[in-house]
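Schema walkthrough. Field components (list of strings):
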Amino acid sequence: MALRAEHDIHKRRLSRNLGLGLTLIAFVALVFGLTIVKVSYWDKRLPGAETSQ
Amino acid sequence: MSLVVFTALVGLLVAPVSVHPVVALASILFIALGAGASGALNMWWDADIDRVMRRTRARPVPAGKVGAQEALGLGLALSGIAVVMLGLAANLLAAGLLAFTIFFYAVVYTMWLKRSTPQNIVIGGAAGAFPPMIGWAAATGGVSVESALMFALIFMWTPPHFWALALFMKDDYSNAGVPMLTVTHGRRTTRAHTLVYTLLLVPVALGVGLTSIGGPVYLAISALLNAGFVAGAVAIWRRDEDRATADGYAVEKKVFGFSLLYLFLHFGALLAEAALKPYGFGGW
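Field assembly_structure (string):
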């Protein structure tokens, strides 16, 4: 028979997993944002970038 | 930790170049991550003495919430992530300074100086002084007189700040076997050293105001704060142990609290100077 009772440890583990998941999502968003900023910055510095726009 | 984040942020914002908000946010986050990592490494190494001292026994490792080996793993992993990511977000100099700061705090201060010399917090204070320099380097890609003076301000502030704490922490450090000045040279000497280092701090704090990041607002605030700090250090120097014990180290506790305000307001004033500049005020 499978154990179905939810122990306090499961609740704590869930909240820890959620916290870690949100942290990872925030980290991915930050790296994505940084990439966009860096790419657009270097785009502007490329020779002829002003004339081509 | 809040001091590290705040001073790094000020170092980044008062720099004479504009930084993209995303780069600024990422830089501050990774500096904070590096500070957290070095804290985890400190707690791993110092778990034995943290358990003994009242001030530190509630920390995660001595309290049993986190295993010492977990703290080591976490500290090493976060150090690597923080340094690499700061290098990618800002530049290699900022990343190199962050790596050196973590090394200095975890190895030079925690593993070597802290348990071997009463000069532990004098030399070790450099670790806490680097954040504004890292913030400045993240923005400008270099080091300058301004960033060196911000470093010197925190470096010179650290000894009187910690010695005021050591005076009212009574037997914490001696019980843990940490050779603080109060333990090795006695309280009378510590009181004299607190005054001398506070007097040495004054020209450094005022000197920051004469550079490009200073201005009349900073100088006025700094003059008031230094007058208050020197008055507190003189009061500490003039007291003996009987009087201090009788009033529960009231003056020492007050000066310790004031020293925190002292540093926050100095960096807050630098921020105010930078914020006023676009409106034609602030700066020289």
